[in-house]
Amino acid sequence: MAAVGQGPLAFFTEMESQGGIIVRETPKLDLELYIANYGDRSRFDRLLLIGRSSVPLCIEALKAAVAEAKKGSDIQRYRDAWECIRIVAPEEPEATWDDAWVTTTQKNNVAETHRLEMELKGYKNNLVKESIRIGHRDLGEHLERIGDFNAASDTYLKMRPEASTQYHITDLGKHVISVLFQKKEWPSVLSNITKIVASNLSDEDSKNLQPYTKMVTGVAQLGCDRYYEAARSFLEVGEPSICQQYNDIASPNDVAVYGGLLALASMNRQELQTRVLDNSGFRNYLELEPHIRKAVSMFVNGRYSACLAVLETIRTDCLLDIYLQRHVTTIYSEIRSKCIVQYFLPFSCVTLDSLHSAFARPGESLEKELVTMIRSGTLKARINTIDKLLVAVSADSRVAMQSKALDTARNYEKEAIERIRRMSLAAADLEVKGTSRKAQGPNRGEPSSVDQWLDDSRRPISLADDSLM
């Protein structure tokens, strides 16, 4: 961390050296309205991310993060926000360490932890299962609020022996996922959400729980770089009114942005039409973010440069999103590559000038990008540097036919050898007794001795090996 009082320049230089993403453009979002869409802990995390990433909104976001932290009882959250603002804006009142609040909060946290532990001990002495479950839940929620995530997770897991109904199992899963979400342990999130989905819920409960499970699954798959699976999950979230109940995860606007961008990056034109534009459930989300719907429509209709132009208008906002930030460059690159490929697909060749006019950024050449796409196999073409053309490379049908014929001949030869060997073993009345299924006795579906021998043997035999013929 930079020294105190060095100001925003030193702060952002340090953040950038640590691998952080710095956004110097002014975003379109209104910070106060934007942050009001989220629950308490998500609100703080988003404010802190914006404060560490956005040059124009840095001070405003960090001041709001300090205020948000002091509404709760997590001292570490307050410390994280204070460490930033004391460097960026040391003259602000929020940059002064509030020792009185920290001391009082710490004292209250210890007292509350002790009280809940004593209550839980009393419940265990009384041997009332429901009271024990609730005692573990209350203690886990308290530990989560004060930022002790490992202890909170362990406490939640102790609810499992007392989870006697389907509601209890679902409630346990939600609490564990809440901790894993804040620790960003995405594979574990997916594992736990699978347990909830696989449980025997009624149709009504499954319908009400669908927005939660799909949102959690989508964010976790995004965190694991599974863009197509994440897009599918966001497109199936359900009603926005139910989605709003889980604003600690994402808002309905986020679902529209995540689903639209990931679908553009991972789905073909037909899927975009059927799964996004014609999806009656997702249409309600697209109404909240009309620019996403516009971008998808333009791609489907072949207006690729216009699609990219629309997406560029929201790039800055996406770079300030807590889940999207790390993936924005990759997602936009994949969408751009798809647009170039689709633009070139109907032609045998196009001029580089036309590609530059459609896709090149001001003052940049497209040739390096085309070379990268060709080398990676994304674009089946070659560049004619003399005539300044991009020429399609079609597969040699004769070579493809010959390759397929050779594969068929090899497969036929292999199958013929196995059939001849089987007939020869049967004709010679050879028998190889197995040991793994010997205890099962005859006529219980075990393989024949010949089949068992063929399964155990992996020795390659050529046509020249005629010892069994």
TrEMBL record:
<dbReference type="InterPro" id="IPR036390">
    <property type="entry name" value="WH_DNA-bd_sf"/>
</dbReference>
<dbReference type="InterPro" id="IPR000717">
    <property type="entry name" value="PCI_dom"/>
</dbReference>
<keyword id="KW-0963">Cytoplasm</keyword>
<dbReference type="GO" id="GO:0005737">
    <property type="term" value="C:cytoplasm"/>
</dbReference>
<dbReference type="Pfam" id="PF10602">
    <property type="entry name" value="RPN7"/>
</dbReference>
<keyword id="KW-0736">Signalosome</keyword>
<dbReference type="Pfam" id="PF01399">
    <property type="entry name" value="PCI"/>
</dbReference>
<keyword id="KW-0539">Nucleus</keyword>
<keyword id="KW-0647">Proteasome</keyword>
<dbReference type="InterPro" id="IPR045135">
    <property type="entry name" value="Rpn7_N"/>
</dbReference>
<dbReference type="GO" id="GO:0008180">
    <property type="term" value="C:COP9 signalosome"/>
</dbReference>
<feature type="region of interest" description="Disordered">
    <location>
        <begin position="432"/>
        <end position="469"/>
    </location>
</feature>
<protein>
    <submittedName>
        <fullName>26S proteasome subunit RPN7-domain-containing protein</fullName>
    </submittedName>
</protein>
<comment type="similarity">
    <text>Belongs to the CSN1 family.</text>
</comment>
<dbReference type="InterPro" id="IPR019585">
    <property type="entry name" value="Rpn7/CSN1"/>
</dbReference>
<feature type="domain" description="PCI">
    <location>
        <begin position="226"/>
        <end position="397"/>
    </location>
</feature>
<dbReference type="GO" id="GO:0000502">
    <property type="term" value="C:proteasome complex"/>
</dbReference>
